[in-house]
Design a protein that fits this description.
The chain is mostly beta strands. The chain is 12% helix and 42% strand. The protein contains two helices and six strands; from the N terminus they run βαβββββα. The strands form two sheets. Strands 2-3-4-5 form a four-stranded antiparallel β-sheet. Strand 4 and strand 5 form a beta hairpin. The longest helix has 11 residues. The radius of gyration is 21 Å and the shape is elongated.
Length: 146
């Protein structure tokens, strides 16, 4: 997932649209019984803002599948994260430009890790399981005495 400033300049433009499918090297999901579905889709536009700097606007689209933390049913959720970031080796805290190239894998990994929920739910209003009999409360009330 490399954006090359020289190639953009050689095309006679100062911006370039991009689309990548990304397979991370490590598992970025630390939710028990859940995993990242790959490939991750990354798209956007890179704008040259200086001799060795870029501004990139884009989105990261990924899915997680696994076991709902509350009811234990299988669930799959899609996440779309929009981002806008400057890439500049001279600015502290900025993602770097190395040899007029930007590797988007670092920012994509960061965005996924920062946006993964703490618990994985099949739906936001999941009622979970009865603590007494274990019935799935999403399917109706259980027969336990309250």
């Amino acid at each position: 997932m490399i954006i090359d400033i020289k190639k953009i300049r050689l095309s006679g433009k100062d911006e370039q649209a991009f689309f990548f499918e990304y397979l991370p090297e490590t598992d970025l999901v630390d939710i028990p019984n859940a995993k990242l579905i790959t490939p991750i889709k990354v798209s956007g536009t890179a704008y040259i803002t200086g001799n060795h700097t870029l501004y990139i606007e884009g989105s990261v689209n990924f899915k997680i599948e696994g076991e709902c933390t509350r009811c234990l049913n299988h669930a799959e959720k899609e996440f779309v994260i929009d981002f806008a970031e400057n890439f500049d080796s001279e600015t502290e805290g900025s993602y770097p430009v190395v040899c007029d190239r930007v590797d988007l894998s670092v920012i994509v990994n960061d965005l996924i890790i920062m946006n993964i929920p703490v618990s994985f739910l099949c739906k936001e209003d999941c009622k979970g399981l009865c603590a007494v009999c274990g019935a799935n409360l999403n399917e109706g009330a259980c027969k336990c005495e309250k």
